[in-house]
Amino acid sequence: MKRKLSALLCGALALSLALSACGGSASSAPAASAAGSTAASAPAAATGDKTKLTLGTGGTTGTYYAVGGVMATVLNDKLGLSNLTVTSTGASKANIQLVDDGEAQLATVQNDVMYYAYKGTDLFAEEGAYDSFGTVACLYDETCQVVALADKGINSIADLKGKSVSVGDAGSGVEFNARQILAAYGLDIEKDIKKVNASFGDSAESMKDGKIDAAFVTAGAPTTAVVDLSTAKSIKILEIDDEHADKLMKEYPFYTKATIPSGTYTGQDADVKTVSVQATLIASMDVPEDVIYDLCKTMFDNLDALQSGHDKFKELNPEDAVAGASTPFHPGAEKYFKEIGALK
Question: What are the tens digits of pLDDT across the range 249-264?
Fold first, then answer.
């Protein structure tokens, strides 16, 4: 393992929220616990008769954290071999480092970021490849949305040439999505647009003020910043057609085709084709096969309850759970999906 976690990342575990089993058996975990930065580096720690699995998510106001909390609340009294503890983290890249360092055994990450980690490219070019994790399941879409002001004469991604375009925070997964999508249309992110690095919220405010013409947003749709923008300004969501989507998917296996339904945003009167990456559950390869198999089976056996807890679980099904996998599966997940016929 790389063991390259900074003190800052380790300290993030002190923000954890423990959501543990509420069953009444003697082996049940306590109602609440704290996961500190001194978490064991072994694959997992025993909690009664169960294995304790720390699940790295994201910020406390984000979707990863909320989805993780629902998983723990719904599944902990149903899992036979493990118990989930949810922790707030710095999201995808930090989560891969936490899993590699043994501070977390499970994590939610974007499947493009985990691909970069597995290959040692892009966001992970300096530190090199990670092979300490495996895919458990793709959970839901994080849609690549290319948003333009309607009065700027931008009708396609090719029309972004020469325009002022936000591509997300510097070095973010969104910036790499923008780089790849622009390249599919023959545009260079450094030469052919006036590149601006800004968060989704700041991008929306700049578009309201007319300071930029368009923005790349990779997030579940509808996205709050874009909803707010569409109520203030007339916008156009740019299409990524099948030809360009196929080109992207051939070069980057983490992309899948997606549709932004009509009416998602104010003034959007037609479906828009695009691509998406996937919010994906990963696990340390140190976690035993039977523990991850039991987690997968319990998750799909209780899908209705998960869906009642958070709308994002309505996108979860066995076929899509394997379709966007960008790295090899954990053996326990592979066994489960082969057993139900979702993997060959």
Answer: 999 989 989 999 999 9
